[in-house]
Specification:
Elements: E1 5-9, E2 26-27, E3 30-31, H1 32-37, E4 46-49, E5 60-62, H2 71-79, E6 86-91, H3 99-109, E7 116-120, E8 126-134, H4 135-149, H5 158-161, E9 167-170, H6 182-192, H7 198-210, H8 218-231, H9 236-251, H10 257-284
Parallel strand pairs: 1-4, 1-6, 4-5, 7-9
Antiparallel strand pairs: 2-3, 6-8, 7-8
Helix pairs in contact: 8-9, 8-10, 9-10
Protein name: Molybdenum cofactor guanylyltransferase
Keywords: Cytoplasm, GTP-binding, Magnesium, Metal-binding, Molybdenum cofactor biosynthesis, Nucleotide-binding, Nucleotidyltransferase, Transferase
Domain MobA-like NTP transferase: 6-148
Length: 291
């Protein structure tokens, strides 16, 4: 497993959003910043460059000089707070970034003969804020740029990436989808609610809101809710899933996350069997001697 730090750039004026607090905008019930933080939980140190705010896990805060000085100034402020050889760099407005992409970047950056790796979008455009850099070359080039220009404020990222030997990692069309406009926000929110993803998005948002780290088998719970609604009565579905959760919590107190997950599965199996017995009774009728 690659040891790394991560820098999340969460500043900027968000001019195309009318100056809105972009990292705090919600997609699928979670802020954009929280969504990005959720895919890099393996980092030794997580540095967020931007205004302080509540986050779902501990982070180190930094601020670029001057405030609003652009991505290179922010990157320089962030890298000063890191100490690992590989630094993952992400913008805070990537609602669909996945752990798989993060792992691909880290693996490519680990190559001995490269100075990092960054994503390219489906059109072949480089995405320097979806990237993993080796810390020493990153610090070297930032220092050289600061010396050459007298500052880093307002300088484009291409001045940095053009001097680094970077591998390219092709990712899907959503990996580098960022939210620069209200149209982007609307598109992201609409995609979250698509049939194939809405349940997992909802479960993830609910766990985040409730502070639950347990992996939940949504298929098991969905089947249970369906059986309860069909075999007993429609209101039985939410009540049964609540009771399963309560039973699992009582059974797994003080145990490992793995044991807690098994407690959920066991409670769900028992409740599902009960719902099926109810359905069998309804199908066969009463007073016929069956049990």
């Amino acid at each position: 497993m690659t040891v790394y730090d991560v820098i999340v750039l969460a500043g900027g004026a968000a001019r195309r959003l009318g100056g809105a607090d972009k990292p705090g905008l919600r997609v699928g019930g979670r802020s954009l910043l929280d969504r990005v933080l959720s895919v890099c939980t393996g980092a030794r140190t997580t540095v967020v460059v931007g205004g302080r705010r509540p986050t779902p896990r501990p982070v180190v805060w930094a601020r670029e000089t001057p405030v609003g000085g652009g991505p290179l100034a922010a990157l320089d402020a962030g890298v000063r707070k890191t100490d690992q050889d590989i630094v993952l760099v992400l913008s805070a407005d990537l609602p669909f970034l996945a752990e798989k992409t993060v792992h691909s970047l880290l693996a490519a950056a680990r190559s001995d003969h490269r100075e990092g790796a960054m994503c390219t979008d489906p059109d072949g455009r480089d995405q320097p804020l979806v990237a993993a850099y080796r810390a020493e070359p990153l610090r070297r080039e930032l220092a050289l740029l600061a010396t050459e220009h007298g500052h880093l404020a307002g300088l484009p990222l291409r001045l940095l990436t053009g001097e680094l030997d970077l591998a390219r990692v092709e990712a899907g069309p959503l990996a580098s989808f960022d939210c620069d406009t209200w149209e982007d926000i609307a598109a992201a929110r609409a995609r979250i609610r698509e049939h194939g993803t809405v349940l997992n998005e909802w479960i993830t948002a609910a766990k985040n809101e409730l502070g639950i780290e347990l992996d939940v088998d949504t298929d098991v719970l969905l089947d249970l809710a369906r059986d309860a609604a069909h075999g007993v009565a429609r209101p039985a579905a939410p009540l049964t899933t609540f009771l399963v959760g309560y039973a699992a919590a009582m059974a797994s107190r003080g145990k490992s996350p793995e044991a807690a997950a098994e407690a959920v599965a066991e409670a769900a199996r028992k409740a599902a069997a009960l719902a099926l017995r109810w359905q069998e009774e309804a199908d066969t009728g009463s007073g016929d001697g069956t049990t």
